[in-house]
Amino acid sequence: MMSQPLFEKVAFIGLGLIGSSLARVMIAENLAKQIVASTRSQKTLDDAKALGLIQAGYSNPVDAVQGADLVVLALPVRATQKVLQTIKPYLSDSTIITDVGSTKGNVVDAAKAVYGEQLPSGFVPGHPIAGAEHTGVHAGKVDLFANHKVILTPLPSSGDWAVQKLIQLWQAAKAEVICMDVEKHDEVLAHTSHLPHLMAFNLVEQLANREDNLDIFRYAAGGFRDFSRIAASDPQMWHDIFFANKKAILNAVDGFEHQLAQIRKLIEDEDSQALMGLLGHAQAARQHFNHMLAKRPLMEKNKVTTQQFTILPGKKNFQGKFTVPGDKSVSHRSIMFGAIAEGTTHVTGFLEGEDALATLQAFRDMGVSIEGPKNGEVTIHGVGINGLKAPKSALYMGNSGTSMRLLSGMLSAQQFDSVMTGDASLSKRPMERIAKPLREMGAQIQTTGERGTPPVSITGSQNLQGIHYDLPMASAQVKSGILLAGLWANGETSVTEPEPTRDHTERMLRAFGYKVKTEGNRISLQGGGKLVGTEIQVPSDISSAAFFMVGAAITEGSDVTLEAVGINPTRTGVIEILKQMGADLTVENERIAGGEPIADIRIRGTRTLKGIHMPEDQVPLAIDEFPALFIAAACAEGQTILTGAAELRVKESDRIQVMADGLKTMGIDCTPTEDGIIIEGKGKAGDWSAIFTGGEIESHHDHRIAMSFSMAGLRSSGVIKIVGTETVATSFPTFTELANQAGLPIQVSE
Ligand code: NAP
């Protein structure tokens, strides 16, 4: 609540749903010393007084506005001109005049008709994007605008002093304030609000005119109810809006007719692939944008409430065969290469996480028809190496650095221009490291953020030259981005890496029939070839499998098999380290899928692990698995020492410190060092009793910390509570479900 009111005297002209909701906010937040109103009917004024919303009510707006420092026009937009004409002589230069109308162009026209081109600097039109089907002074609610958007459309004549005060006002109503120009407002609203209302009224009208209308409405299912809900809105208001925003609405209707004709034709022609493409694209777009839009409130919510895992003590069996989610790096590439291949690519085991879904959406936006994902299955109808189409707007890469860096290479070689954007965290990540070599190839690419960061803006060009590039840093993403641009470049493109990095791109290109040479640390390919659609089985992610591997290794009598896990040699450090610690671990059924080696990994709890000095050459190959390995080390006999792993301090959390804090909470003696940790294992050969004391662990919203400490629940004498576990769902959505099935019950609570 404000200690000093923002306004001396506020005059509402019109006090229905919107006006009275704002008046309620002003009272609750102490925003005005005095509130008065003018409406058409005396009854509204009497009711408003009885509700305690206004101190005085007038039938003539002139009486209301005298001495007011804020005038809010909260009436139908068609009445704007007449009201402004009437009150104009009674307003001072310091009066702020705003409105809440659903259209803005005609409100500005009304003001110009009254004032001429020189509008007062206190005049700032606005539009709260919040409402309800009911109208009138009794329908108002104090929280109507909370968590909704309010659009202000300041004019060149509007004073900043007035805009700032209105921003403060709407923020006090807990709304998110956006400033936009008038034309943009009317165009956006025509598509997102006015067209849907028009369609809802029209559909109900179409059905109501049928002879069997009674039956139709009687049997109408939930879909009809959802779709037609907004046709219950005030006809007069919508009549006014349709006229007031005529030009933009007619444009939106034209677009709708065009789209309707397109889908009609696909059904008429029984064009199954194109219809699936259209429906799939629409469904995915809705999920994608819903997700993006839902994200911020979710994150804000997470500040106050976080998810928590609780694991009760007691001896547990840990058994079963499991398939953990697919590998992220491979999921991304399956979409990218499937899209530019000739023919169809069928993907199984696709990781339906946010990052890979951003890649999928980007290719849909470039005209590729993609079915799914459904239970990890995706079918991509490849458009061939030259078949991508210009996206209609910027490609949104969410949090995914892989998508942005790999696509930088691909997009640099297209005929069309493109822009890639990302979320706040991706927008801070360096993109020059990929832009620089691409420029050497002739690409016109700019990192338009500060300090070489996104957005990335690319001008289409089809004349790239193959180059040789010595990578200054070990980065699989930069290597891949260059090689992918090389698919379209003249001659040979090659990259030398300082040390081996993940080679998923090379392997998968070969699986798509593209020749890639690897000679030592030098990788090369010739431009101008083609990719052929194929079957891709995305291997299960070894990083996710690692939690279950450690769980089984520390639990007596356990027998767990993790199926079809990717065992790309650049990723298998965790297997090597667990074996060195003495785990009973076998790699079975080795095979190749989509160019990647995969195998089933079986781990049994038959012997106590031993502490070791972790081999430094394995550190880069197991970097994501150390939190889980620390749990194994705590259960081992003797000391475990990790060195050469400073990288762990700059992951999603400082994984050395956060793990050390948690281990200490649970009774484990350990010493974090600059580049590693020393853990005094409490295990004794042949003794399978509890190792951990239980306790409350702060995961710092780091999914791998949360999952690692969950495994400690297999050897704990006390209750383990892990706070901040909501991030687990983004990398391993089935984690608690699989842990439960294996015999480790995890209670999830908010
Ligand atoms: P409402 O509940 O029907 O209230 C309208 C108010 O304006 C009433 O107090 C009415 O007086 C007064 N009024 C009507 N015609 C008038 C005239 N010619 N001269 C003086 N006063 C007049 O409507 P609302 O939903 O609050 O809508 C107000 C504005 O907000 C509209 O411009 C609308 O486009 C915009 N808006 C509405 C929504 C929504 O969902 N409803 C959402 C966003 C924006 P009486 O009480 O005496 O009839």
Automatic annotation (TrEMBL):
| Purpose | Catalyzes the transfer of the enolpyruvyl moiety of phosphoenolpyruvate (PEP) to the 5-hydroxyl of shikimate-3-phosphate (S3P) to produce enolpyruvyl shikimate-3-phosphate and inorganic phosphate.
E.C. number(s) listed in UniProt:
2.5.1.19
Q: Where, by residue number, does phosphoenolpyruvate bind?
A: K328, G401, R429, Q477, R655, R704
A GO cellular component annotated for this chain's UniProt record is:
cytoplasm
Give the gene that encodes this protein. Answer: aroA
Q: Where's the active site on this chain? A: D624
- Which pathway or pathways does this protein act in? Metabolic intermediate biosynthesis; chorismate biosynthesis; chorismate from D-erythrose 4-phosphate and phosphoenolpyruvate: step 6/7; Amino-acid biosynthesis; L-tyrosine biosynthesis; (4-hydroxyphenyl)pyruvate from prephenate (NAD(+) route): step 1/1
Species of origin:
Acinetobacter bouvetii
Which protein are we looking at?
3-phosphoshikimate 1-carboxyvinyltransferase
- Domain of life assignment: Bacteria
Q: Which GO terms describe its molecular function?
A: 3-phosphoshikimate 1-carboxyvinyltransferase activity; NAD+ binding; prephenate dehydrogenase (NAD+) activity; prephenate dehydrogenase (NADP+) activity
Organism classification: Bacteria, Pseudomonadati, Pseudomonadota, Gammaproteobacteria, Moraxellales
